[in-house]
Specification:
0% strand, mainly alpha, Bcr-Abl_oncoprot_oligo_sf, Bcr-Abl_oncoprot_oligo, 64 residues, BCR protein, MYOD Basic-Helix-Loop-Helix Domain, subunit B, elongated
Length: 64
């Protein structure tokens, strides 16, 4: 069921392997996914900050 939904959302991409055999296994997967999402959100925020900083610095820089 998960693989079918994944393929509908991300055609051509293989579904990631997840342990979904029990409620406890699904809870562990959910926590793992949440931790991963938090790390990715932090990395995205850091990259956005760097982009904004560099764009502002370049806008202030005199032309070469």
């Amino acid at each position: 069921d998960f693989a079918r939904h994944w393929q509908a959302e991300f055609p051509g991409e293989p579904a990631p392997r997840m342990e979904l055999g029990s409620v406890r296994a699904m809870e562990r997967e959910l926590e793992r996914c949440r931790r991963h999402l938090r790390r990715l959100q932090r990395a995205l925020a850091e990259e956005r900050f760097k982009v904004g900083y560099l764009e502002a610095a370049l806008a202030r820089a005199p032309p070469p």
